[in-house]
Amino acid sequence: MKITVDPARCQGYANCVAAAPDAFDIDDVTGKAVLLRTEGDPGEIREAARSCPVAAISVEG
């Protein structure tokens, strides 16, 4: 599974953190989502991508 976060699109809503806290966090400096790790519950990671209101997360595979 390939997961990417587009920092230009991210607005820091943190929906991804709520859906998959082991995979995403909000950077303290930029206020944008960062990918912590690519392993994890695929369902949670896909839900995190779906819950992003600005579609800043993409999941392939």
TrEMBL record:
Entry cofactors: [3Fe-4S] cluster
Organism name: Actinoallomurus oryzae
Residue intervals of the 4Fe-4S ferredoxin-type domain: 1-29
Keyword Metal-binding carried by entry: yes
A Pfam family hit: Fer4_13
Keyword vocabulary terms for this entry: 3Fe-4S, Electron transport, Iron, Iron-sulfur, Metal-binding, Transport
Protein name per its UniProtKB record: Ferredoxin
Domain of life (superkingdom): Bacteria
PROSITE patterns assigned: 4FE4S_FER_2
Biological role: Ferredoxins are iron-sulfur proteins that transfer electrons in a wide variety of metabolic reactions.
